[in-house]
């Protein structure tokens, strides 16, 4: 019990642990709200889920400096495998630009900037999907050279990426592959799977 509590405390004291915990709870609440027959209770759960999503958005702004630092550190990264290096650059830069664009979108949504918040958030979705695609391709390349334990771990990570990508892509304009063709329950379930995997890896 003490060991479990120590581990939980360690996870929740880190940005990644808090973010993944909030994300997991967010999608659990969404799924629960969708299956409740009592609409009033469902609305209460949706309101709480919205608060958790808003909290994640605010917390992410304080992670922007770390993302910029990660982008700067790329100048020192190994280039032995140049393709892997390029994919690493693509992922890091995409997430860094995502952070900047999301900050602008957040401020625009708060009416502090005269920008189109909806359009900026849409750009964030494109950047996130691009980062996921590059990350999946990088994982596929690396998995062939791993030990069994590392391979199993990266398979789990890959499953999380794929779940997020399928769910996120479904939010694109209708008519592009499966975009707009999945139900809210399907996309939420996929996002929950990705969130649970990411949270599990924090432990």
UniProtKB/TrEMBL annotation:
Compartments where located: Peroxisome membrane
Q: Which controlled-vocabulary keywords does the entry list?
A: Membrane, Peroxisome, Transmembrane, Transmembrane helix
Q: Which GO terms describe its biological process?
A: peroxisome fission
Asked if the keyword Lipoprotein belongs to this entry, the reply reads no
Q: What is its main location?
A: membrane
GO CC annotations?
A: peroxisomal membrane
Question: Matching Pfam families, A to Z?
Answer: PEX11
List the InterPro entries: PEX11, PEX11C_met
Q: Where are the transmembrane segments?
A: 85-108, 120-137, 158-179
State the name under which the record lists this protein: Glycosomal membrane protein
Question: What is the native source organism of this protein?
Answer: Parascaris univalens
């Amino acid at each position: 019990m003490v060991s479990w509590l120590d581990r939980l405390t360690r996870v929740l004291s880190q940005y990644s642990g808090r973010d993944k915990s909030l994300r997991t709870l967010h999608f659990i609440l969404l799924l629960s709200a969708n299956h409740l027959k009592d609409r009033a209770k469902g609305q209460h759960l949706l309101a709480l889920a919205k608060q958790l999503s808003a909290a994640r958005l605010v917390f992410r702004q304080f992670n922007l400096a770390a993302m910029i630092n990660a982008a700067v550190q790329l100048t020192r990264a190994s280039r032995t495998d140049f393709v892997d290096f390029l994919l690493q650059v693509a992922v890091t830069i995409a997430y860094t630009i995502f952070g900047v664009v999301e900050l602008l979108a957040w401020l625009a949504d708060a009416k502090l900037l005269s920008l189109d918040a909806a359009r900026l958030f849409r750009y964030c979705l494109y950047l996130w999907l691009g980062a996921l695609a590059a990350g999946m391709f990088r994982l596929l390349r690396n998995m062939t050279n791993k030990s069994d334990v590392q391979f199993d771990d990266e398979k789990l990570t890959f499953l999380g990426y794929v779940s997020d990508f399928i769910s996120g892509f479904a939010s694109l304009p209708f008519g592009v592959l499966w975009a707009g063709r999945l139900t809210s329950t399907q996309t939420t379930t996929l996002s929950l799977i990705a969130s649970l995997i990411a949270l599990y890896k924090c432990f």
